[in-house]
Amino acid sequence: xxxxxxxxxxxxxxxxxxxxxxxxxxxxxxxxxxxxxxxxxxxxxxxxxxxxxxxxxxxxxxxxxxxxxxxxxxxxxxxxxxxxxxxxxxxxxxxxxxxxxxxxxxxxxxxxxxxxxxxxxxxxxxxxxxxxxxxxxxxxxxxxxxxxxxxxxxxxxxxxxxxxxxxxxxxxxxxxxxxxxxxxxxxxxxxxxxxxxxxxxxxxxxxxxxxxxxxxxxxxxxxxxxxxxxxxxxxxxxxxxxxxxxxxxxxxxxxxxxxxxxxxxxxxxxxxxxxxxxxxxxxxxxxxxxxxxxxxxxxxxxxxxxxxxxxxxxxxxxxxxxxxxxxxxxxxxxxxxxxxxxxxxxxxxxxxxxxxxxxxxxxxxxxxxxxxxxxxxxxxxxxxxxxxxxxxxxxxxxxxxxxxxxxxxxxxxxxxxxxxxxxxxxxxxxxxxxxxxxxxxxxxxxxxxxxxxxxxxxxxxxxxxxxxxxxxxxxxxxxxxxxxxxx
Length: 487
What we know:
Layout: H1 2-9, H2 11-25, H3 37-44, H4 55-66, H5 88-100, H6 109-124, E1 132-136, H7 139-156, H8 162-165, E2 171-176, H9 182-189, E3 197-200, H10 210-222, E4 226-233, H11 245-254, E5 258-262, E6 287-290, E7 303-307, H12 310-317, H13 358-393, E8 397-401, E9 409-412, H14 420-434, E10 440-444, E11 447-451, H15 462-480
Helix pairs in contact: 2-4, 5-13, 6-13, 7-9, 7-12, 13-15, 14-15
């Protein structure tokens, strides 16, 4: 025990050693891990150790074997996912919380920053003054939490407490086809079933058509079907499209149905004045989610759900009192940080034990402020627009869908190749294998498009021209050969 404590007390030199390994990794001058998979798998594929090797040798193995063979996601050239590598501030704040406040419970500074940072997010994204939030592990759980509040409210309107008594009447959730698949998951988990998600017709940009929504609501009202929630998108994950929030929100009010906005990726786009008008109607929300681990640069595992009345969350998710927990930390007068649990976030969502996430969001905003975040978002949106311009000016490229936010969908075109979807699939795989530019693909109206999403804090304009040049070079190479290689 004394040895373990001594090692922990001397954490600073270990952090310096670990930091040097991480700094080296972040230069991305190493090969992709699959090029040396046999070597590192052999090194790691050992039986359960009977004796430990000590902290120094473990750090050495991490630095020499594990870290150099880590993920490509933090690579600035990776634009495949909307989750990216955390900023340095995010990493440091997260580490601080792991050591100094491994639980958000209690009356300490980290617990205080849970609420303070949630309020900062609400102010940052111009949410209604009365909304309150709770952190979660990401957008998947945040959608379940928000729609759990919608379920509680909708059934309470007809005299049912769904959290206490269960659901004895079907409910329906309305969403566009472009909505994230976690909406179906939320419907399943909350007891509605995936088929309870009614797909509303979208336009060619993937935005929900309010007139189609209204027709569906009218039909369901006539047939006495219970509408639980309308889900609109503030930035779809496929293309970054933003639904007409104002019109959809007004329909929610007219038909007395909960209005939820999935802004996991795109809600921070409101900080770009050029597209701010697309967020009109956000003031009508009953709930909204956002993922700080996307555009804000937080480490993975930080989402947030905001609702108009947090008491609904308590009724929907409370686990009830626990003798060992509340009974030992429920003093009326707090003289010690463990005398009270603080705000009962554990009764507002799915997690009892949860890390202190608020300090990370606080640190990210405190570091660069609203202005710095706005500049980053505008830079990323500019990158998507620059890519669209270059693609539209090139005879070898085609813009499949013009960007709304920081996603641009384009493809290589050729007069000598009939199956452009297959050709662009092959271009994409070679892009990824080259490891300089790693976007994803998406199918839009039957066309397979190359889809970079620029959200990483380390993403810069040079990636745009580099990606365009690489796509053209690969496309030219593939179409100039008599037979397209399989790589």
